[in-house]
Amino acid sequence: MKRRSFLGLMGAAGAGLAAPAVVPATARAAAKDFRGYHTTPGVLFDGTRCIGCRKCELACNKVNSLPEPEVPFDNLEILTTRRRTDSATFTVVNKFETPSGPVYRKNQCNHCLEPACASSCFVSAFQKKPDSAVDYDDTVCVGCRYCMIACPFEIPTYEYHKAFTPRVMKCTLCGPQMRSGELRLPGCVQECPMEAMIYGPRNELLNLARRRFAAFPGRYVEQIYGEHEMGGTSWLYISGTPFSQVGLREDLGTKSAPELTAGALAAVPVVVGVWPVLLGGIYAINKRKEKIAAQEQQQAVSAALAKAKAEAKENLDASLAKAEESANRRVDNEVKKAVKEALAKKEEELKAAEASATDEEEGK
Amino acid sequence: MAYRKLVLGLSGCLFVLVCVLFLQADVMSMISSSGKDSGRADLIMIQAIAKQTTKQAPAVQFLHDAHTEVLAEQGKDCAACHIKDDSGTISYKYMRLEDPAANRLKDLYHDNCTACHAENAKARMANPGPQIGECRKCHVEPAPHTQAWVSGGMDNMLHYIHWDSDLIAKDEGKDTNCGQCHHEYDEDKQELVYIQFAEEGCRSCHTADPQEPVKANLSEAFHGQCVTCHLENKEAQAERNGPLDCASCHGGPQRLEMQAKFAEKLEEMDGVLPRLPRNQPDAVLLAAKLPELPEDATRPTLMYPVPFNHELHEQATDACRDCHHETLKSSCTDCHTLQGSEQGGYITLERAMHAPDSKSSCVGCHNEMKQDPSCAGCHAAMPQGTEPPASSCALCHVNPDILAQRPDGHQTTDYADYTEMLIPAQTDGRQPAGEPVIVPEDKEGRAALAQRLIDLRPKEALLIAEEDIPDVVKIDVLADEYQPAELPHRKIVMSMMEKMKDDSLATSFHATPVTMCQGCHHNSPLSKTPPSCQSCHDQRSQEGRLGRPGLLAAYHIQCMSCHAEMGLEKPAATDCTSCHKQKEN
After folding, report:
1. B-contacting residues of A 54-93, CB under 8 Å?
2. Domains of chain B, each with CATH number or no CATH
3. How far is Cα B342 from Cα B361, in angstroms, rounded to an integer?
4. pTM of the predicted model, to two decimals?
5. Which residues in chain A touch residue B541, judged by CB atoms under 8 angstroms apart?
6. What is the DSSP letter of B79?
7. Which residues does residue B44 pair with via DSSP β-bridges, in sequence order?
8. Pairing, β B473-475 against β B485-487
9. Which residues pair with B512 in a beta bridge?
10. B562-578 pLDDT, tens per residue?
11. What is the pLDDT of residues B202-218, one digit of tens each?
């Protein structure tokens, strides 16, 4: 499989790009230089307007039917302690003391354009929806909580108190309620008495933010947090104080989590697919080499043995032959000797007989 | 064990590394602890080496005030280290009038510093200062102190204290003492002379890099002039001699303290400083200088000149140079021409007067004034942008005829017709009724016209009849959770009027009786009965009206941001029931 097609599949599966209506073809074609979904909705939070009334927290609690909080929503003392979201609180407002007075900042899921939670989830329990909400599906969630580790904003939280059906909980951008027509705006946005939050197409929000910068020079840090952070988020923030002073991390960079992890994730099929084959092949080749070597050795040994045997036999045969030869020679010699002796005896006898014959003849 | 040697060697290396790191950390902590030094105003770097080609030792950090104090205890003064020139002006430089060659300069410092320190040692002083051979007591690196000083500068009050002072001798045959400081160079006589009513700010000649015949740069001029005089006063045992240390003029906290004292003094004087005796004009007609035109050419259409109340602005600024930033001798239009000139840094007259973010421009300075809490309640909410609103042009560029025709001087329209602020180039349909005003060419005539126009300006803040202002406005369109809010409308208007009563800027610029209403009833035509908030701010969802607040937010943003900007701590923005009474059910 080609790396590009693999990435394409990963993108389609992980980031919920399945809905072609919202994803411009160019966005997918230019995956290497992704500039975000411009026309998808988002929320602009204006830090200079927030008065820290906690009405958004109350609205969120109501809309999502969350349990009653320990500290009631009309207690504003709690703002001074630094809080984060938990499984029963999808949004919190924190108070930050700055040289120019207290500043409030709401915190909730930023609904990243390319969410780290989704890209880290191997069962695709998180999906970026066309209405910008990063949705969670508890029916497939296995509870690994990789999402909690992956999220740079520390947003997903876990229902630790539930033994059998724990879920990962976070702000839903009121996606379910808005899709069902129950709400026209996210609960918090609807309820804010100062319109510190504005819901609308992301590109228009960016324009609006810049218009405010131009209309009120010196009032804002002229930067829109979330425009590029972590590849861009659907929640955007503008502030009169530096973002790091209101608890927004400025060290996140502009690359999205999937972009950061794509390289490593793309290496997975390589590691999983190619490495066993490669290593197995090397192992097999090594094994075969060893086997051949062993065989060759054996052959050599047996050859040597056979050679030695043959040599020994040859030697034996030779010496046997020699011995036989010498024995034969000796026999021959003995025979010859005996023959000689016999011949000599015979001759003597013959001589004697001749002599006697003569004698006889003589004597006759 | 085959590896014993290697293991021993590696552990040795590691040990050394750890030791080095510890030492380093120790050294670093020393630096950071000295970095906490909030900064000294009297720190002088003796950079004799700056003239040397090779660096021989770290530059010496010399703490001037520390030495001044010790010398004072010994009964010595500036003269112990600084010499006077022929005219009796004390030299800004140490023990010399002019800089010798680098090696001679080095010797000069070494010889004179150590000689004094040696004397101290002989006199058995507790801390005589570094002796010969103790090089590293002066030549220290890293530098143990940090420098932090603010610009000295004279503001109006300090200037007044000087020209009002009896300690400073009067000019010959006059009852002013300006000539004791202000001077000119007379080319013919080749000497410094004083010309009355032509006084300049020091900075106009004594720049950082002065051109001949000016000799002293700004530091040398200021220190020579001020310190010499202060020293003479001290020698004469005057009751007040002026500071002889660095921190009194250049120390941040000291400066703030001084300004607080001056503010007190100004209060004692009923907030009004006497005018400078320089024959400056009371009123000026600000008009563009026309470029040279061929004889038969038609004069281009221009804005009406702006009558400028010079007398009033003298009180409102810290120093003359706030506006006359280069020199007092030429007018704004000499450098800032219609097209821009090299002399004026190519800043056109229009920019010089209207740049919204420049402290020297009219609009920029007026914008700063709007940050006063009394004004900020309305003005902070108004988009500032990069340009002043077009409707405000005619407030300054006023047609004298039309202004004079108005019943009680003030404006009655919102200047939708911009032709009112144009001097027509020739007779055509746009020309206002009657003969167009001819702007006089001569200085006196222009000043008189300016004064006449200024006199036509409203003298007090304008407002419609009190009974025409709705008293209490009930806001009940959003009352689902709380009882309707009761807005004490008339009380709010009247208290804001009270705040701007004595403010001539507000009086002049809130040109109609209903201008003030625009603070809240924005974006609607000037009217005694402006449209209700609901006409623009509806209760629909945010969809389709991005950026324009809904009714709920419109009320809240308007009220709360105004209270915040005006520094009204009560009611707290989150105290709902202080405005909306709790519903009983």
Report:
1. 76
2. 31-137 (3.90.10.10), 156-268 (3.90.10.10), 283-454 (3.90.10.10), 466-578 (3.90.10.10)
3. 18
4. 0.73
5. 184-185, 190
6. G
7. B62
8. antiparallel
9. none
10. 999 999 988 888 888 88
11. 888 898 888 888 888 88
